[in-house]
Design goal:
Strand content: over 45%
Strand order of the largest sheet: 6-5-4-3-2-1-11-12
Distance between the termini: 32 Å
Number of strands: 13
Shape: globular
Number of helices: 2
Oligomer: single chain
Radius of gyration: 20 Å
Low-confidence stretches: 1-23, 189-195
Mean pLDDT: 80
Length: about 230
Amino acid sequence: MKSYLILFTACLMLCSGAVARTLSHPLVEDGKVWNYKASNPEAENYTEWEEIYSLEGDTVIDSHRCLKLYVTTNNSPYIHYDHLYIGAMYEEGEDVYYIASGNTTSAILYDFSGNPGDIVTMDLYELQTTKYDEYGLIINEKQLVKYRNEYLTVIKWSLIDPDKEEAVDDFSSIWIEGIGSPIDLLNSTPIWNTGCYEQELVTCKLNDQIIYDKDEFEASAQYVTEE
């Protein structure tokens, strides 16, 4: 009887481990807040400011149940947003969508179903011009990362040059399951009238609890190989 109990316990632990590795971590959650550090390195007087995106409250747009997205800027020398409603986000399967304020058209921001070698068509959204443009990217790697005892899917990708139809080596980034893009939540490359504009995700919180910290992630996240 004892041997059966040991075998059952071992199987239960293995199953629990398998479940932990395959749990879905939603990106769109009420109370989630992204804190970005923004900068313009090409400005005459280098400056940094803060951009905060938050999901607060639900709504229905074109039959999609969404969460409303707001943006706030602190100390920005260019644009001042004070808890401005800029649209809504929702998820379907492994895809994350965005609907800009005043629109009903869904733009795909993240596709976590892609695999290495896949070329994915995405939607670039510019906050200033409320304009959508399609662009392509190629998925270079898709890996599991262990972070805080969770296993998150991380996709590494490169932008495709539409003229040369090849990857742009100096424009690549990652998507982190449940977190999004560390360079821009809306997964775009906004162009400001002042020149180059960069963002860097510092923290992501859920109901005031930090679930992602840039420095901690870079120092402790472990890439693992699935067997």
